[in-house]
Design brief:
The structure holds 2 protein chains of 2 kinds.
Chain A lengths: L4 H22 L32 H35 L3 H15 L3 H12 L3 H28 L2 H8 L4 H38 L10 H8 L7 H29 L1 H5 L15
Chain B lengths: L1 E11 L2 E12 L3 E5 L6 H9 L6 E9 L2 E2 L5 H7 L4 E4 L3 H4 L6 H5 L1 H6 L4 H14 L5 H5 L8 H12 L6 E5 L7 H17 L3 E6 L2 H5 L4 E6 L2 E7 H6 L4 H19 L1
Parallel strand pairs in B: 3-8, 3-9, 6-7, 7-8
Antiparallel strand pairs in B: 1-2, 1-4, 4-5, 9-10
Classes of the chains: A mainly alpha, B alpha/beta.
């Protein structure tokens, strides 16, 4: 089911990023923090395969170390988004009757706050850190997941098999675990894959703006921000982090797409295929 | 078993959807509920099943062996539903979970009400599958609904409904989604189950030809109100109400239509 070139590409890129992050724990090609101002902007050479940045630091080492932040944010924010989304969705659809509408309204209100704004609020209160990004993106996209999943659960809750399960005396819990959850899990997994792509993009964006990881922790977004003013003079130094971000985000979107097709025969059969949310943090 | 429905009515806001439905049913008897689309047939079976959404307001009495289903607590109701009352819904493809194998769904009502070992469950599934005349049982029990034909699937749904040997079976248009050649088999099955297990049956349909093959007594609905009731023979031979005459006329012309082809 995951044999298409697209999913092979997506999985390889994501695996490569994950392995790189693991590798950074035990080995780096050079010292990513050692700055040699006299060798700033040096072109690639055997000892520095991707060249040196504006402060004379080894780009490859920084890139490898930066993948840690990407992986932490991707996994962390996706987990937070999943938990938040699931809580919102369940409270708003099969929770107690009196709390369903308020939860739906709360989701609508929270959705009005762009993830970026939430992150900036958090950063100004708690200071910029990877965890601020994780929580901000997790909550921001978690609300989105909550809205999508709430609609999905309510739709499944109205199907014939849920009706007939209730008619034969199944308890609320067993209707939920045996009938509703399995039938919405495909959409949930798809949403998580989307959340991962958005989280990676958001981390890069926030680090670019200076709200993300602290300077002691290199990240692709800040590498991009630091090199960007010199784009016309030293395009290579901008290209490396840019390429890393683009490929990783692309891979996670493609994975989401492949998952959608592989997991859910219902999605394939629907005449009006669900539109994948392309709203990144900046689109809102 | 004795079912007494008296003055059952269902309202949605100001709108009265079902009004003054009353009938009685004993073990082994088969009541056919008939009416045109929108007459309230499905609403009646959902109300009897107690699965109407909460915004519907139900009044009257549904006495099942003396206990009023409308006033029971959800727990007490859950014990009766599925154990003493079985349901077969119109479209088996919709009424079965697409992600569960047929074998598991056949025994769902059983597992809701009794604790069974895995072994007992699979034995029960096979026994039930035999009882409803499924062929190729091993394959079907291990298949998902989309891998099973409509007729076989309705047999699976019926097997699930009778798994607990209920005293009352409510079937809402169980043959409508099936083609004519398969319909006959399902009707025969319901007939023989009702005779063999002495189950009381409420059979909802819009098709008087189907009705005549299954019902002992008939309740005709129109616009949510009962317009005629009586034995099958009586209602068919001397219909009093316009709606009944139209339904009979419709069945007759359909029959002529097939003959002239």
């Amino acid at each position: 089911m995951m044999r298409s070139p697209r999913s092979i590409f997506a999985l390889s890129v994501l695996a490569l990023v994950a392995l790189t992050a693991l590798l950074s724990l035990v080995w780096l090609p050079g010292d990513p923090f050692y700055a040699d101002p006299y060798r700033a902007w040096e072109n690639p050479s055997p000892s520095h395969p991707l060249g040196l940045d504006g402060s004379g630091r080894d780009i490859l080492s920084q890139l490898i170390l930066g993948s840690r932040v990407t992986v932490i944010v991707a996994v962390g924010a996706t987990a937070v988004a999943g938990v938040f989304g699931a809580i919102f969705a369940l409270l708003g659809s099969v929770g107690r009757r009196w709390m369903r509408e308020p939860v739906a309204v709360l989701i609508d209100v929270l959705i009005a706050f762009p993830t970026l704004l939430i992150a900036m609020m958090f950063a100004s209160v708690f200071g910029g850190s990877v965890w601020v990004v994780v929580m901000a993106v997790g909550i921001g996209f978690g609300v989105n997941i909550g809205r999508v999943m709430r609609a999905e659960v309510m739709q499944v809750a109205r199907t014939g098999y849920v009706l007939s399960a209730r008619a034969i005396g199944a308890s609320r819990l067993s209707v939920l675990t045996r009938h509703i959850l399995p039938n919405v899990s495909a959409v949930f997994i798809l949403q998580l894959a989307l959340a991962m792509g958005i989280a990676i993009l958001a981390e890069a964006g926030l680090s670019y703006l200076g709200f993300g990881a602290p300077p002691s922790m290199p990240s692709w977004g800040r590498m991009l921000a630091e090199a960007q003013p010199f784009l016309s003079v030293h395009p290579l130094t901008v290209m490396w982090p840019g390429l890393a971000i683009t490929l990783t985000v692309l891979a996670s979107y493609l994975l989401g797409d492949a998952l959608r097709e592989a997991l859910d025969p219902n999605l394939r059969m629907r005449s009006n295929p669900r539109k994948t949310t392309t709203t990144g943090v900046f689109a809102r | 078993m004795r079912l007494e429905v008296s003055n059952l009515s269902v309202r949605l806001g100001e709108k009265v959807l079902l009004k003054d439905i009353s009938f009685e049913l004993e073990s082994g008897e088969k009541l056919g509920v008939i009416g045109a689309s929108g007459a309230g047939k499905t609403l009646l079976s959902l109300a009897l099943a107690g699965v109407l959404p909460e915004k519907f307001e139900t009044n009257g009495q549904i006495l099942f062996d003396g206990s009023d289903l409308l006033t029971l607590s959800p727990q007490e109701l859950a014990e009766i539903r599925g154990d003493h009352i079985g349901f077969v819904f119109q479209e088996p493809r919709v009424a079965l979970n697409p992600l569960q194998k047929a074998g598991r769904q056949i025994t769902e009502a059983l597992t809701n009400h009794y604790s069974l070992t895995k072994q007992q469950r699979s034995e029960a599934a096979t026994r039930l599958a035999e009882k409803v005349g499924l062929t190729d049982i091993d394959r079907i029990l291990n298949s998902y609904p989309h891998q099973i034909s409509g007729g076989q699937l309705q047999r699976v749904a019926i097997a699930a409904a009778i798994s607990t040997e209920p005293k009352l079976l409510i079937a809402d248009e169980p043959t409508t989604a099936l083609d004519v050649s398969v319909q006959r088999g399902v009707l025969d099955l319901i007939n023989s189950l009702s005779r063999g297990l002495n189950i009381a049956t409420i059979f909802v349909t819009h098709d008087i030809a189907v009705l005549s093959q299954i019902a002992d007594t008939v309740l005709v609905l129109d616009g949510g109100k009962p317009v005629e009731a009586g034995t099958l023979a009586h209602v068919l031979t001397s219909p009093k109400h316009e709606v009944t005459r139209e339904l009979i006329e419709a069945a007759r012309s359909a029959e002529w239509g097939t003959k002239s082809e």
